[in-house]
Design brief:
With 222 residues, the protein is an all-alpha fold. It is built from ten helices and no strands. The protein has helices spanning 2-20, 28-45, 64-75, 85-95, 99-112, 117-130, 137-149, 155-166, 170-183, 189-214. The longest helix has 26 residues, at 189-214. It starts with a helix and ends in an 8-residue tail after the last helix.
Amino acid sequence: MIWALVLGLAAVAFATMALLFRLPRPAWTTALTALALGLAGYAAQGSPEVPGAPKVAAPLVEGEGANLVELRRAVLPSEQWSHHNAVIIADGLARRDKFADAATFLLGAVRDDAKDGEAWLALGNNLVAQADGAMTPAAQFAYRRAEAAAPQSPGVPFFVGVYQLEAGNFLDARGLWAEAAHRAPEGSEARLTIESRIARLDAVMQQMLKMQQSRQPGAATK
């Protein structure tokens, strides 16, 4: 229900800009892109199943680390979780958005055990977050090592898909998420979590298609 409401609000927002405020047709693409990126971010990391709670307004970047930690654990089957103390400490730091400090502890974890796939994955996530979403060479190296350590883990394709989504590459993101879902055990919470993100992304792309179709001549009242 909440996801349907989000899509409905996006459609209403676009209709309001296009019809009520007479947004020029050349600007429709920009408006659609802005709405689509907002929906994409919600598809990637939104949690409509979690009850809302009043909170003090804060910068949008605050809490990013907590989301990354929770999402990583959600998409990894429990048997793939790391039990290294450094990973636990790093997660505590990441939850406070201290990504560089978290990465330092994770480097210690992978030095101790180069086959710790979750430690490598967490390292990649923290390096990307530290770089404001940029896929740096260091992050790419961490993801490659995570993939080598746990080739059947859904972690790497899922998070690379998240960054593809944030870059606007929806089809690439969906393909990566489909691979992540395939790797997760059937019926597991991890697979259900990934499949729910895929369903949201499909809904976003369907809504985008409808919005684009509304741009065709004769689709809207002048």
